[in-house]
Amino acid sequence: MITDTQIERWLREDIGHHDVSNEVPGETVGRLVAKESGVVAGLEAAAAVFDYLDVSVTDRIEDGTDVDAGDELLRVIGPARSVFRGERIAVNLAGHASGIATRTHEAVENARTESDDVAIAATRKTTPGLRGLEKRAVVAGGGDTHRLDLSHMAMVKDNHIAEMGLENAIAHFREQTSFVTKIDVEVEDVADAPRAAEAGADIVLLDNMTPEETRAAVGELAEYESVLAEASGGITIEDIPAYAATGVDVISMGALTHSAPSLDLSFRTGQ
Predict the structure, then answer these.
(1) What is the pTM of this model?
(2) Average pLDDT, the chain
(3) Which of 55, 99, 133, 156 is 20 to 30 A off residue 216, Cα-Cα?
(4) 211: nearest Cα among 128, 123, 111, 126
(5) Enclosing domain of residue 252
(6) 41 versus 128: which is more confidently predicted?
(7) For the purposes of burial, counting CB atoms within 10 Å of the CB of 219, is it exposed (0-12), middle (13-18) or buried (19 or more)?
């Protein structure tokens, strides 16, 4: 959910202490338009900015909609000064989110060439202050949010294992978590996958493994029916079919949020 505090911070950052360029009299109509095809997201945030400025949003398509160049995504009407003040923030938010949704959709489509079941998930590699926007954009593109914050799931990572050992680290976090909290354990060697499952992992994250190693690790986990296998670490859009074919349950990618290019959008005023 976008808060008034966030919007006020965005406006203060953009407008500064002496706004001259947006001092335009009268009322106007504004339209957010796609300049290239993709999957849109972030329109709720864009609309919230205009609402905060007392600009009426008269039309808006749904996040997750496929669009082509020239399609209108959002229409507003209100005081020209306020429309111009909200324009750049709305374009930046929607363009960034739509880029993530578009990249996620591409990743999901690549996965479907090999598997109808594997989930494509984001990670916590998000922009500070924009995690909610970016995670919702992943969902709009057909992906999974993964954990939203550190309290959402316990992850036993390489540094934990280096400090405490694999089995001891899993036991340590199991003692501290609720029965409803899942434990995701990161392993870098095929042989450690069944060790993690045996020690109580709910999810085994196969980190930086090749597709061949990933397939072998999935085979090692086959007898642990309730344990999910997650592939992660340096996986690109082009790599996805090879990993989807290994039988993993989840492919998680930081690149969905930290490397997706913005979708090219334009804001136009007047009828």
Answers:
(1) 0.90
(2) 93
(3) 156
(4) 111
(5) 109-258
(6) 41
(7) middle
Side chain identity at residue 245, one-letter code: A
Q: What is the rounded average pLDDT of the residues 219-245? A: 96
Say how far apart CA 190 and CA 205 lie, in whole Å. Answer: 11
Same domain? For 249 and 137 the reply is: yes
Residue with tokens 């029916």: 225
Token match 């550190």: residue?
A: 150
Q: Which residue has the tokens 């990618």?
A: 253
Which residue numbers are catalytic?
88, 125, 157, 186, 207
pLDDT at residue 149 in the model: 83
Residues contacting residue 60 through CB under 8 Å, at least 6 positions apart: 43, 47, 73, 74, 75
Measure Cα distances from 150 to 72, 122, 156, 192 in Å: 38, 14, 11, 24
Measured between alpha carbons, how far is 85 from 30 in angstroms, rounded to an integer?
Answer: 12
Q: Are 104 and 67 in contact (CB under 8 A)?
A: no
Q: Identity (one letter) of the amino acid at 264? A: D
How many degrees, rounded to 5, is the angle at CA 143 between CA 166 and CA 127?
75
Domain count within the chain: 2
CATH number at residue 252: 3.20.20.70
Q: What are phi and psi of 115, to 5 degrees?
A: -150, 135
